[in-house]
Amino acid sequence: MPRDIQLQVTPEIAHNETLLHLHVAKLMQVTGSDIQKIVIEKRSIDARQKAVKFNLKALVYFSDEVYTSQKNVLPEYPNVTHSQEVIVVGAGPAGLFAALQLIELGLKPIVLERGKDVRGRRRDLKAINVDHIVNEDSNYCFGEGGAGTYSDGKLYTRSKKRGDVDRILRLLVGFGASDEILVEAHPHIGTNKLPQIIQDIREKIIECGGQVFFETKVVDILLKNNEVEGVLTQKGDKIVANKIILATGHSARDIFQLLHHKEIYIEAKPFALGVRAEHPQSLIDSVQYSCDYRGQYLPPAPYSIVKQVNGRGMYSFCMCPGGVVAPCATSPGEVVTNGWSPSKRDQATANSGIVVELRVEDFKPFAKYGPLAGLAFQKDIEQRAWQLAGKTQRVPAQKMVDFSQKKQSTEIPKTSYVPGTTSVELGQVFPSFLTQTLREGFIQFGKSMRGYFTNEAILHAPESRTSSPVRIPRASDTLEHVQIKGLYPCGEGAGYAGGIISAAIDGEKCALKIAESLKKM
């Protein structure tokens, strides 16, 4: 039987199979020939000391043991062409993994996506970056794969209690992701590799008899006696089903407005909002690794930081080592930022959302919008940023120290944000309580991460789409909407997930609950 070991090694040993083999043999007081294979199960970096180490959890197979390479395979998906149909609105991770789970359970998903397929989205991303043209249905947030497809592909989640994280990771490997995502403590696919995986998931859904429709925007949910009967699309097509998974993402404002208009119960939800801070990656490396040069064996350094400032949490969000800042508006007349990294994380800059916790009471100036007050708060800031930066997709920007000292930056160096920047005193973008929290918080961040608080860092505003400003309440036992039978609010847009993995898990959960309810009928 292989032996479990945990060890800490230098970066060079961690990345050299021969050196690792010799190190483990010495540690276990055996000869090198006694060890047949070392299988790394988990890998993480410990940068708390000046000498950075890798923590490894491994299985050691000895020469007299049988070692068989394990390959991740997909489940045996049945053909569901003639099975009962379930409408899935949205082809983000929640919708796609809901569809796969429905097929596994013998049900037929009909996936309706307002945006384009994963390849078609690229032209619209170029249009927003180069020509400042926002396609409301095809952008960084909308389209096949959802917001995660072209914004990094991070697979790390703290939500272990929500479901089987490893199952989702194994499925992703089955669809073409590197099996390294099963090993790394903070797995990441990369914006350049995720599109093919998303396409392969779609092709599997269709191969098994499911249906996927792009550029098919849902404009109404058809109801009778508080039960769903189907949906109406913008093309005038009526699609009938008595089970609907609503997985439309955190930026589908028209869906929130539709629900509110139909008097389907929704509620305002706290979220977080702030800026996207960009540093030279080399500076973050020196701060995190305590060295002038990280060398060939250490990856570009990430960071994670949380502070309590003026009674509010202020923290890093969606940190992108070796990545870029991207324009993520979903309507003309607004500016929104996000960040992403390619799989190699080889860009010269690092960026992270730096955001402040908001409370429902912060939305009081927009109380007339009822449960959409948080959405109106969010939209007001995005539209103000658009106006201040010149009414294009240029983004308001300021050097970090200048911001904390209330000085408009005389010039903004070129950043990774392709549409460009406009020097703005960012206190004009945000409400005063939020501005003051950010100003004081950056100073505190600098005390914890020496070198972080610098004018080499450029702030881009706003980072406003951290999570949904609306929750669509559902029953904890059935996951159905508390008022509408057959409607399953799902994923980030409904307020029940926060990233690719947790959204995928939530999609599977909703599919399982639908199968359970159908068995009882």
Automatic annotation (TrEMBL):
Domain FAD/NAD(P)-binding: start-end pairs: 85-254
InterPro entries: FAD-binding_protein, FAD-depend_C, FAD/NAD-bd_sf, FAD/NAD-binding_dom
SUPFAM superfamilies in alphabetical order: FAD/NAD(P)-binding domain
Pfam family, one: Pyr_redox_2
Domain FAD-dependent protein C-terminal: 270-466
Protein name (Swiss-Prot/TrEMBL): FAD-binding protein
